[in-house]
Amino acid sequence: MVASAQLAEGTVTCGQVTSSLAPCLGYLTGRGGVTPGCCNGIRSLNGAARSTPDRQQACRCLKNLAGSVRGVNMGNAAGLPGKCGVNVGFPISNSVDCSRFVSKVFY
């Protein structure tokens, strides 16, 4: 029972990705700067994506989110983790193959 509860907590959802990145939308669309709330969301998401399936799911969600939000500057999106001092271990891009990224990098 405890093991299944821990697995459920570790699963990254697209809702979690969206809510973590909501404070970043101003920066991602070129209408603001990177805020502490944005960086906290990036760090939280990076910490939640511990396993390979979680990282691949987070990657897919980021890719879908970038394609569904109007006005996202992909250069800003690609540089956002670095602005927050976080290495997510995969490039943020509309063309990334999320199945290729299997390891987590913490910095």
Automatic annotation (TrEMBL):
One of its GO terms (biological process) is lipid transport. It holds the Pfam family Tryp_alpha_amyl. Residues 14-98 form the Bifunctional inhibitor/plant lipid transfer protein/seed storage helical domain. It comes from the Eukaryota. The keyword Hydrolase does not apply. Keywords: Disulfide bond, Lipid-binding, Transport. GO terms for molecular function: lipid binding. Signal peptide: none annotated. The keyword NADP does not apply. Belongs to the plant LTP family. Plant non-specific lipid-transfer proteins transfer phospholipids as well as galactolipids across membranes. May play a role in wax or cutin deposition in the cell walls of expanding epidermal cells and certain secretory tissues. This is Non-specific lipid-transfer protein.
